[in-house]
C-alpha cells in the first residue's frame, strides 16, 4: 500500500479532482443537521452514501434524498456509543457497497452542565460519542481502507475545540472536540503510509437542532461575536467536506480546517 495510488494525474481538471463517482462513503449522524448536508453533498459529488444514526425513520428519509441523486444509499439504526455496533455497521457498509473510501465522523452531542456540579454521567456521555465512537469508527474504517488502496477520514471538530467560547457550561464538549482535533493529527501521521488521509472540519455556529440559534438570549454569541455577523446553514459547510473527502485535497492530511465566519481569526 502506498499513497502513490491517491496522487491524481497532473492532467486532472479541478472538477475531476472533486468527483467522488464510484466512491463509498459513511456519514455518522447523517440523518439531520450537518450530517444530512454532508450526506447529500457527497451524493451530489457522485458517492454512494451510508447513514449511521439511531433514528431509523430519519435515516430512511435522508437515504431517499441520497438515492434521488442517482447514487446508492443505505442506512443502519445504530447507537455508536456501543463498540460492537460500530464494527458491525461498517462491515455492513463494505458488504453492501463493496468498499469504504470515505468516513465522515459527524455524530456528536453537546450537554450544558456547570463543571462545579461534576456531572460525571454527562461527561462520560459526551466523550463516549464525541471521542470514543470517533476513534472506533476511524479504526474500523481504516482496517477496510488499508486492505484496499487507502481512503480518507474527515472528523467533525468545532471552534469549541480551539478557543474558549463565552461561558456556556459545556466544558466536556469543548474538551472532546479538542481531543478530536489532536486525534486527527495523530492518526494522520500514523496512517499516511497506508494511503489514508485524516483531516478535521471545524465549523463555527451552524443552524441545526444542536445549536439554539433562534434563542434571543444567545444573539451575542451566535451573531455579534462572529466577524461575518451571522451563523451558517449546514449547506454552507458541506462544500468544505467534499473538498476534504476528495482528491481535491490529496496533499492535505492532519489539518483542522475552520469554516466559522471568521470566529477563530480574532
Ligand atoms: P444534531 O444534534 O443536529 O445532529 C446530531 C446527529 O448525531 C444526529 O444525526 C443524531 O442522530 C446523531 N447521534 C447522536 N447521538 C448518536 C448516537 N449515540 N449514535 C449514533 N448517532 C447519534 O447536530 P449537528 O448537526 O449540529 O452537529 C453535527 C456535528 O457537528 C457534531 O459533531 C457537532 O459537534 C458538530 N458541530 C456542530 C456545530 C453547530 O453549531 N451546529 C458547530 C461545530 C461543530 P440520532 O439522534 O438519530 O442518533
TrEMBL record:
<dbReference type="Pfam" id="PF13561">
    <property type="entry name" value="adh_short_C2"/>
</dbReference>
<comment type="similarity">
    <text>Belongs to the short-chain dehydrogenases/reductases (SDR) family.</text>
</comment>
<dbReference type="InterPro" id="IPR036291">
    <property type="entry name" value="NAD(P)-bd_dom_sf"/>
</dbReference>
<protein>
    <submittedName>
        <fullName>Glucose 1-dehydrogenase</fullName>
    </submittedName>
</protein>
<dbReference type="InterPro" id="IPR002347">
    <property type="entry name" value="SDR_fam"/>
</dbReference>
<keyword id="KW-0560">Oxidoreductase</keyword>
